[in-house]
Amino acid sequence: MARGSCVSLQLLIEWIVLFLFFSEASFASNTEAEALLKWKDSLGNQSILQSWVAPENSSSTTLIPCLWRGITCDNAGNVTQINLPNVGLTGTLQNFIFSSLTNLLRLDLRDNQLTGTIPSSIGVLYKLQYLDLAKNLLYGTLPLSLANLTQAYELDFSRNNITGIIDPRLFPDGSAPNKTGLVSLKNFLLQKTRIGGRIPEEIGNCKFLSLLALDESRFYGPIPSSLGNLSELTVLRLSGNLFSGNIPPNIGTLSKLTDLRLLTNRLSGVVPAELGNLSSLTVLHLAENQFTGHLPQQICQGGKLVNFSAAYNNFSGPIPVSLKNCHTLYRVRLEHNQLSGFLDQDFGVYPNLTYIDLSFNKVRGELSPKWGECKNLTALRVAGNLLGGKIPDEVVLLNQLRVIDLSSNQISGELPAQLGKLSNLLVLKSER
């Protein structure tokens, strides 16, 4: 009899535990669903959210948002993801009750027409890992409460009208252990915004940061040397700002860096030779700055460089020696500098090359037949140099060639008759 009572008691306890579990899950589900419905109501008529409704003819009071469009739940019924990118949402985030959705791991509202500010209450999403609000009409500043998102690995606020600065307190302060700040951040994107000011040195404490994209915003001042601490960095995009001063030499220690874009700023001085240590580089843009001195000679030491621009600077000295065997090159722009060298000696054969511009430098030599081995070449611009010789037949047989500019040189001889066979040729510039 005693044994039967023990079994009954055990079963009763198990039923109570299950009841409490499902009651809690039901309560959480209701709270989350009600919060989502309140936000939906504030947005006006949104056809994309037609599935966000409470059941009408149901005896149960439980709302289950897990089947609603864009909503994902975990096994316990908690809302963990909201994925509504590019669905035409209009309205604001002001009635989004973040405090009722603290199980969110992912919030993707990219490419909509949301306006207003980013509420500071977003900081209660302490479990959030992924936040994408890019390509909306948001304004105001980045709330400091974002520093509470210690598990977030990606934040993207690009292509909005957000203003202000990047508050240094968003990042870890370098003390151990860090309990606040974006300690898990891997991808941070603020492209095409109105955010400006200096990049805080504290960003160098984000030891997992892999992608930093601040293109076409309003940042100024020096590039912080603390970026050299980001050993996981693979992409650094700072183009289209007002950065000034020199490139920190320790950028050359970032062995995983594949994409470095610094074009269209006010950077000056000599480009550190240490950039030649970046053996993983595939993209390097230095164009439209105020650089002087020599280009790093080993800029393609890793043999992976695809896209390289250093145009519109004051570079002098030789063409980087490593470019000769850099067979991966696809696009090269070095125009409007004072670079010297020999066109027939300092360049190799590039099977993928489509565009090269060496115009208005001090390049000598002649257009050698080996340029005819660059079978995908569409544009060859070498105007305003010190080139001599004649135009080889091999070059004019390139059937993809659309532009060839040899003007303001010392090219001699007659134009090859084969030029007339270039069906794609749109522009030909030569003294002859």
How would you describe this protein?
- With 432 residues, this protein is of the alpha/beta class.
- It has a domain at 335-432: Ribonuclease Inhibitor (Leucine-rich repeat, LRR (right-handed beta-alpha superhelix), Alpha-Beta Horseshoe), CATH 3.80.10.
- The protein has 2 helices and 27 strands.
- It has helices at 2-42, 393-396, and strands at residues 71-73, 79-83, 90-91, 106-108, 113-116, 130-132, 137-138, 154-156, 187-189, 196-197, 211-213, 218-221, 235-237, 242-245, 259-261, 266-270, 283-285, 290-293, 307-309, 314-318, 331-333, 338-342, 355-357, 362-364, 379-381, 403-405, 427-429.
- The strands form 3 sheets. A 16-stranded mixed sheet has the order 1-2-4-6-8-9-11-13-15-17-19-21-23-25-26-27, with no helix packed on it.
- Helix 2 (393-396) links the parallel strand 25 and strand 26 (403-405).
- The chain is elongated.
Question: What topology emerges from the helices and strands here?
Answer:
Blueprint: H1 2-42, E1 71-73, E2 79-83, E3 90-91, E4 106-108, E5 113-116, E6 130-132, E7 137-138, E8 154-156, E9 187-189, E10 196-197, E11 211-213, E12 218-221, E13 235-237, E14 242-245, E15 259-261, E16 266-270, E17 283-285, E18 290-293, E19 307-309, E20 314-318, E21 331-333, E22 338-342, E23 355-357, E24 362-364, E25 379-381, H2 393-396, E26 403-405, E27 427-429
